[in-house]
Amino acid sequence: MSSSTEHRTDGRSRTAGSVLSGLAVAAGCVLFLGGFVWAALTYRPYTVPTDSMSPTIAAGARVIAEKVDGSEIRRGDIVVFKDSTWGDLPMVKRVVGVGGDKVACCTKQGRLTVNGTPIEEPYLQGSGPASPIGFKAKVPTGQLFLLGDHRSDSLDSRVHLTDGDHGSVPRGAVAARVDARAWPLGSVGMMQRPAAFSALPGGTSQPGPIQPIALAIVAGAVLILGGAAYGPIARRKGRQRA
Questions:
Q1: 36-51 burial, b if ≥16 CB within 10 A, otherwise e?
Q2: Coil, strand or helix: which one is 114?
Q3: Cα distance between residue 126 and residue 149, in whole Å
């Protein structure tokens, strides 16, 4: 093969590679930026200020919560809400009862019951009963009964039982549902839906789109880096051949 033919072949190869490289970077930018826009529209970060949700969420941890309507909330969800009766700041608690439920504690085995069904709660702090104090409540229609996972260190529906709504809050008070932990790094992960609530009427909620969002961002970053790396690699190989 003549030198001119080799140069034309190399030129076509470099041109095709440059086109593919550009396409990879462009697609990567769409995925990367699109993922962040999608996340901004769907999720918001929160810092949990207290130890009331330990060990599920430690004090000072950052969580990612999906913006949802209160009507979408199910038992077992961890929600961010704000209710004037509870205070002026957003709070993070777990939903254990919805409208019409009879919530009580504790059985002889120390378990919480919902409509008479004992609930296995492996997420609780410690190995004692589900609540250090006994209680009973019927949740009004359109309301949610909320408890912290650290039952001996949580100001939740139990301390508001004498309120007009028996310690519950309106579904409309919910701003978001926690889908994942984002900080500290050692605790990063998806929030699991408790299996014990899935057998009750209404079941548990489905996770939001946080996994496809994360996949889009990671895939976009890989395409951008891979496409951007083509140019320097191709030039280096060209110099080596020369």
A1: eebbeebbeebebebb
A2: strand
A3: 10
Residues designated catalytic? 52, 93
Torsion of CA 95, 96, 97, 102, to 10 degrees: -160
- Helices 3-42, 210-241: axis angle to 10 degrees equals 160
As a whole number of angstroms, the distance between CA 166 and CA 87 comes to 16
Q: Judge whether 202 and 74 are in contact, CB under 8 Å.
A: yes
Give me the residue label for tokens 């999720």: 43
- Whole-angstrom distance, CA of residue 118 vs CA of residue 124: 15
Closest by Cα among 126, 106, 134 to 56: 126
pLDDT tens string 34-78: 999 999 999 999 999 999 999 999 999 999 999 999 999 999 999
**pTM, two decimal places:** 0.84
